[in-house]
Specification:
The complex is a heterotrimer. By secondary structure, chain A is mostly helical. Helix content of chain A is 73%, strand content 1%. In chain A, 40% of the residues are buried. Chain B is an all-alpha fold. Chain B contains 18 helices and three strands. Chain C has two domains: 160 residues, Sandwich (Immunoglobulin-like); 95 residues, Immunoglobulin-like (Sandwich). In chain C, strand 6 and strand 7 form a beta hairpin. In chain C, helix 1 packs antiparallel against helix 2, helix 4 crosses helix 7 and helix 5 packs across helix 7. The relative contact order of chain C is 0.12. Classes of the chains: A mainly alpha, B mainly alpha, C alpha+beta. Chains in contact: A-B, B-C. Chains B and C meet through helix 3, helix 7, helix 8, helix 9 and helix 10 of B and helix 1 and helix 2 of C. Strand 1 of chain A pairs antiparallel with strand 3 of chain B, so a sheet runs across the interface.
Chain lengths: 202, 628, 309
């Protein structure tokens, strides 16, 4: 996808010749993900500072449903598996399987989001909102930004699906799927960290 | 997405093809044009920030000035800081990254030309958005550092939306920086000419690499802090609300975790420029290349461990204060290593005092002063006196103006002939330099004294009878002399563009690859991608060393023929990225969404999101190249 | 405000560190800048013949100019770090005073029960431990001649020790940007010999004076309703009267203070009148509004305020 100037080897064909041998697009995504580590790191640090500042509102022990959140975490984890399968499919030239696994990933991601929406609605009913306490503020902002990242990922997955459907995602564009796969796995790993620190830490 | 446009491509996905005129500038993806856009825009903001400074200095020339009232003064010093940091020094650095990185590494463009264009348009719109606040209720007035809860609780400052402009504006600018940093990191790592190993790269490229990593990692932290501020203001979250259990000090930690690496983001490009200029005008290679590079990386790395030296008086406790005092002291070491290596480069050389060299020497001289005063800040018990006084203002202006701005001006004089094909007038350059040096020292030297005599910062007026009147007047005069020097520069720049002496490819007898191509460079930069065999490869194509180690010109005819005219045959077959208007469209969505927050308009927000998404999707779907 | 001439043991200790570090800095400055100038003169083009030798570096120099600064800095750290710790310790036998920062004035509360504003009265030769609190934004309490500053953060209690050796008045200012009148938030420390300090405390603890000549103003102050139904007693306190407001400065012994309105103005009839006429015009952002007082009301109130000795 990188439209950097390249030396033409044949008419209409691009040859990627990067100095390190690593694909430009993949390297850029790694750089971006590095930046995202700091983004979530700052949010997680703030939450660690505020997790016990519950004011007049409920504490985490009072609202968390660890078994429930474990299930939705598992769902998200499985979506990384389907993402890997999607990448394998395009690399093998199987557009149909590519679309199946892309859609599966998106659906699993959407289930995760749906689960979070339900979970947060319950929290609000139990008296924990953005405005209740620093715990509430930091919890919802952290998980909310994560959810926004998942949502953007779902949009990108559906876009890839659509592009494949109209024949605009050939195997030579596998690096794009890999790039979005990297993003998706990252979002998954961030959730593992959040789940551990926010939910599981005593 | 490697397709070529064809007659069946829908009109909105056809790549624009204009090469001249306004439309060509709006759709350009050429790193050189984008560099110029950054440079001109940053300079305009420099003038605006300078006017803000002049108003501040005019107000403070006398103790009970009535030129501006407290409210306007607070807006002025806030926007002056925000402007100079985010809209001048950073984008001017980006201008140089854009124009010079591909040229110096032997590349034809950056890794992601459209992403590059996006970062410019986002920057422009972010700056315009910020400045529109002047006409929409007032400019931000919480200081550039925006301490909560003064800024996070709308009760404490006048104006309903000023700090929203601040938070949202900086968020937009942050996106520009992060996007650009990913682009430049990939460019530097992946687009180097064959043979240009890391340790053969020019120091400017190394410093650019470090800076772009710093940007990548520092900007998200302030993004988080700004989100928290916006949420506290708009959604009544409790991040910084002490009554609700929040901690205002959290803002400071997050801000300075960004803010300290930020100052190295501001200075390292100029240090890179100086490292390029000194060898050329001393006719000697940079002394201790590896150590200069290593020091730059060390500064970038250690810069993460000193942030709380901005918070020595906030009550962190003696253990934290002591730890940060020590880390702050030691970050002076790699800086010193650079200065000594620069001096060793000069020593034994044959020094030509042209304008680029003068500004680089000014950098060194002024930065030494700023660096030394910085070390005195690390004496925590005495910093408790210095903090929030004009002594601090003196320090950072010495390193940011005497350092970064001087270095950037040096870069402009140095690379002007390459970019525009003409030389800037040397005599006016010297006038600019001396006026600016004198004005600068008159403006900021006395601030050390004012600070030590107890004058606090951010005061719209001050008491008479405390011994502050004289030095304030001197500082004001100095500021106006700086302004005069900038006028000289503007005149020189404009006149040289039209009537400057025509420059060859290599007017300074340079060492690096950009001097091996025509001035101005053709669109494709290098007709043939160079093969790099050593550091300062271009110099070694021109000169060998005799037994005493002195350079001797290589006989003519051994080098490639660079003098041939371009009959239109050069560059044949070189495929360049096509222009695109989608980066502009995508960028446009951002201020729309920001205004939606200010005006509390959901429809506008949705339109902005749609515009941004359309820009993004158009970008992804458009063919890689225009029709042939 | 000049802290290069400290007048208390704490500020003197910091000043000693400064003297050493500043001296080192000056020496380094002259050596390095001097070397730079010498190089520029000696090696300018034309003073040379031919091209210079292309030297790439010399590791010995690198080691030297890394080690020497490190050693210097180790020395600086060695003298500084202990002082950081000793100055952070709670001093023995200290007088404790609560300092509360408001936009834009300082309030002081003593254990003895004294509540006052603008002027911090302290005894000489005794450390004073200030407990710093804020009701709104971050301020910074600073009396330069006596000690460095410490920020005043809402939601936290920071501490600052100051000590004066000689009786006198020591000027200070708020040193953390806190809004419109940040520049108008002065702090003053008044140091007394211990016996005089005790006298001051007793005077401050007494009920307010009830001067019959100021009866009219007193009546207005306690019972008057002005623009928008505002009342003085809603914000201000005067001990020994029904006025118990805590939003604004305690005025019980206003007449004993040299200045008012965050120590902006000398306590003259003229200044007090101008203030009462239109407080926000005198002090940008003032929380005390324009009460639309008539000239007669102002004259009476000024007389009352001046009587509160």
């Amino acid at each position: 996808m990188s439209d950097a100037a390249v030396v033409e080897t044949e008419h209409g064909h691009e040859a990627h010749q990067t100095y390190t041998g690593l694909d430009n697009v993949k390297m850029a995504m790694w750089a971006f993900l590095g930046s995202e580590c700091l983004f979530f790191g700052a949010l997680i640090s703030a939450h660690l500072l505020y997790r016990n500042r519950t004011g007049d509102g409920p504490t985490r022990q009072e609202v968390y449903d660890i078994p429930y959140t474990s299930v939705s975490s598992f769902v998200l984890l499985m979506s990384s598996l389907t993402m890997v399968l999607a990448l394998a499919a395009i690399q093998k030239g199987d557009q149909r399987k590519l679309r199946i696994w892309l859609m599966a990933t998106a659906m699993l991601g959407a289930s995760f989001i749906g689960g979070q929406v339900y979970e947060f609605t319950t929290f609000v009913q139990e008296g924990l909102t953005l405005q209740t306490s620093p715990f509430g503020s930091s919890f919802f902002v952290l998980t909310g930004f994560h959810g926004a990242h998942v949502t953007i990922g779902i949009l990108m997955l559906l876009s890839l699906f659509a592009m494949s459907k109209i024949g605009r995602l050939p195997p030579s564009d596998a690096n794009k799927v890999e790039m979005i796969g990297l993003y998706w796995h990252f979002v998954d790993i961030v959730w593992i960290v959040i789940f551990t620190i926010v939910y599981l830490f005593p | 997405m490697s397709t070529v446009a064809s007659p069946t491509t829908p009109w909105y996905l056809r790549r624009p093809q204009a090469k001249t005129g306004l439309w060509s500038w709006l759709t350009t993806v050429d790193h050189k044009r984008i560099g110029l856009l950054y440079g001109y825009t940053a300079f305009i903001f420099f003038v605006l920030g300078g006017i803000e400074a002049l108003l501040i200095r005019a107000q403070l020339a006398t103790p009970d000035g009535t030129l501006v009232d407290a409210d306007l003064y607070n807006q002025l010093f806030t926007t002056h800081g925000v402007t100079m940091i985010f809209l001048v020094v950073m984008p001017m650095g980006a201008a140089f990254f854009n124009y010079m990185i591909p040229l110096m590494i032997g590349a034809r463009d950056v890794a992601f030309p459209r992403l590059n264009a996006l970062s410019y348009w986002v920057f422009l719109f972010g700056g315009l958005f910020l400045y529109s606040s002047w006409f929409m209720g007032g400019a931000p007035d919480g200081g550039w550092f925006g301490y909560a809860p003064l800024t996070s609780n709308p009760d404490f400052l006048p104006g309903a939306n000023r700090l929203d402009f601040y938070a949202l504006g900086l968020q937009i600018l942050g996106i520009a920086s992060i996007v650009a940093s990913a682009n430049f990191i990939v460019t530097i790592l992946n687009m180097r000419a064959p043979g240009m190993k890391l340790l053969r790269m020019p120091v400017f490229i190394w410093m650019s690499l470090v800076v772009n990593f710093l940007l990548l990692f520092a900007m998200p932290i302030i993004a988080v802090a700004l989100f928290m501020m916006t949420f506290d203001r708009t959604f009544s979250t409790l991040f910084f609300d002490s009554a609700g259990g929040g901690d205002p000090i959290l803002w400071q930690h997050l801000f300075w975790l960004f803010g300290h690496p930020e100052v190295y983001i501001l200075i390292l490009p100029a240090m890179g420029i100086v490292s390029e200029i000194l060898p050329v005008f001393s006719r000697k290679p940079l002394f201790g290349y590896s150590f200069v590079v290593l020091s730059g990386a060390a500064i970038g790395f250690m810069g993460w461990g000193v942030w709380a030296h901005h918070m020595f008086t906030s009550g962190l406790g003696p253990a934290a204060n002591a730890a940060f005092a020590v880390s702050t002291m030691f970050i002076a070491v790699p800086t010193g290593v650079k200065i000594f290596n620069w001096m060793a480069t000069l020593a034994g050389g044959s020094l030509r005092f042209k304008a680029p060299m003068l500004f680089s020497l000014g950098f060194i001289a002024m930065f030494i002063i700023g660096g030394l005063s910085g070390v005195t800040h690390s004496i925590v018990p005495h910093d408790a006196q210095q903090q929030d006084t004009y002594y601090i203002v003196a320090h950072f202006h010495y390193v940011l103006f005497g350092g970064a701005i001087f270095g950037l001006f040096g870069g402009i004089y140095y690379w002007f002939p390459k970019i525009f094909g003409r030389l800037m007038d040397e005599r006016k350059g010297k006038v600019h330099f001396w006026l600016m040096l004198i004005g600068f020292n008159l403006a900021f030297g006395p601030m050390h004294i004012l600070g030590l005599k107890g004058m606090p910062r951010r005061y719209y007026h001050y008491q008479s009878g405390l011994g502050w009147e004289l030095w304030n007047m001197v500082a004001t005069i100095g500021a106006f002399i700086i302004a005069l020097s900038v006028l000289v520069f503007i005149f020189n720049f404009a006149q040289s563009r039209k009537k400057g002496e025509v420059a060859s490819e290599d007017p300074w007898d340079g060492r690096t690859l950009e001097w091996s191509i025509p001035s101005p460079p053709p669109e494709y930069n290098f007709e043939e991608v160079p093969m790099v065999e050593e550091r300062d490869d271009f110099w070694h194509r021109k000169y060998k060393e005799d037994q005493k180690g002195r350079p001797v010109p290589v006989p003519a005819g051994g080098a490639e023929d660079h003098g041939a005219e371009d009959h239109g045959e050069k560059g044949h077959g070189i495929h360049l990225p096509s222009p695109s208007f989608y980066p502009l469209i995508a960028a446009l969505g951002l201020p729309m969404m920001a205004y939606a927050v200010i005006l509390q308009s959901w429809p506008l927000g949705i339109i902005g999101a749609v515009v941004a998404l359309s820009g993004f999707y158009g970008w992804v779907l458009e063919p890689a190249t225009a029709e042939h | 405000m000049n802290f290069l001439k400290p007048e208390g043991p704490i500020s003197r200790e910091a000043d000693r560190l400064w003297d050493i570090t500043f001296l080192i800095s000056v020496v380094v400055f002259f050596l390095v800048e001097g070397a730079l100038v010498w190089i520029l003169v000696k090696f300018r083009e034309g003073a040379q013949r031919g091209e210079p030798k292309q030297v790439h570096g010399h590791t010995r120099f690198e080691i030297l100019w890394t080690i020497i600064p490190v050693l210097l800095l180790v020395g600086v750290a060695y003298i500084t770090v202990p002082v950081i710790f000793t100055q952070a310790r709670e001093p023995e036998g200290a007088l404790k005073v609560e300092v509360i920062g408001h936009q834009w004035w300082w309030e002081y509360k003593y254990d003895s029960g004294v509540v006052t504003a603008n002027e911090l009265h302290i005894p000489t030769d005794r450390p004073v431990l200030l407990e710093l609190k804020s009701v709104d934004v971050i301020h910074s309490y600073w009396i330069p001649k006596l000690a460095g500053k410490q920020d005043v953060v809402p939601g936290r209690v920071n501490h600052l020790t100051i000590e004066a050796t000689e009786p006198g008045t020591y000027l200070g200012q708020c040193a953390e940007y806190c809004g419109l009148s940040h520049a108008n938030m002065r702090a003053t420390a008044v140091a007394h010999e211990p016996a005089d300090f005790d006298t001051w405390v007793q005077e401050q603890l007494a009920d307010s004076a009830n001067d019959p000549l100021a009866a009219e103003g007193r009546e207005l102050f306690l019972n008057g309703k002005f623009a928008d139904d505002q009342q003085c007693i809603a914000c201000h306190a005067v001990k020994g009267t029904p006025a118990q407001g805590i939003v604004g400065p305690n005025l019980t012994h206003l007449g004993s203070r040299e200045r008012f309105a965050g120590s902006m103005f000398e306590r003259t009839d003229e200044n007090l009148a101008a203030w009462l006429e239109d407080p926000p015009a005198q002090k940008p952002g003032s929380k005390m509004p324009d009460l639309d007082l008539t000239d007669e009301q102002i004259t009476a109130l000024v007389a009352y305020l001046q009587s509160l000795k």
